[in-house]
Predict the 3D structure of the following.
Amino acid sequence: MPTYKFFYYDGRARGEPTRMLFALANQKFEDVRFQVEGEEWKKAKSDKKRFPFSAIPVLDVSGRLIAQSRAIYRYLAREFGFYGSNNWESTEIDEFLGIMSDFETAIGPAYLEKDAAKRTADLLKSRDTTLKPFFEFFVEKLQKGGGKYFVGNKISLADLVVFNLLDAFLDSALKVDGYLDPYPLLVKYYQSIKSDSPLSSYLKTRKVTPL
């Protein structure tokens, strides 16, 4: 059996879908967490044998490294059976991963903004402009699938990355009150994943972090 060691910051962000996949698979792994500005990470990131791009996340699988977040997601989702039941469903999941990249590009500057009022204004503006087609896509996919999961009839990597995104808007130090009011189906979906899904037990017991 392979052994897993996962390196990321002590927070959710790009690391949390990986932890969720391990939880769904009931697979043990070593969860190595660095403080964002901590001295330990400043020293460790120069080790190219462990961190090829001086960045995290990195997943060590029995000594072999995967050093990009979406590559890690795809590898584990395939390994554990959360990457769709056929090629079409896997491709649908890839669509969601592509959208997540667009989201990060769109909201990244706002989340780096120190002024809370300006950050909120920027996030609301992007919600109603750049991000609107993506939110509408999510709603359409849920409606077609009956409102439970995004792809197929079971939880998948698509659900993990979208839930993680909604979690940032609804339950993090940078949340915006009422952000998803225009999309009540997404709020209902978010609450369902938290309270009534294979991921619920993990979400109730995971380490609480501000981001």
About this structure: The chain has two domains: 4-80, 87-199. The beta strands are 4-9, 30-34, 58-61, 64-66. The chain has a mean pLDDT of 94.
